[in-house]
Amino acid sequence: MSQTRGYIWVRLIGAILASIAAIGWIVERVSGQGNAITVVVNQIPDFAMPLIIGLAFVSVISFLIKRLSFRSKHIAA
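^ thats the sequence. predicted structure below, dont judge the formating
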């Protein structure tokens, strides 16, 4: 997936989500109380397998699109 145009969006969204989780953790540590972000982050492991399968699916589709695009350019030439 790192060789596709969509990879930057995956990295960007991942970085934003990680930042939100970190902010939630900091707020929880400072205040000593849980918050909405903590509740959501604690539910993520329940959806780990569908998220992994979804990311793998997007990776395979991105790879196939890039490969088909590459082949069509070289066949037409």
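The CA atoms of residues 1 and 61 lie 9 Å apart.
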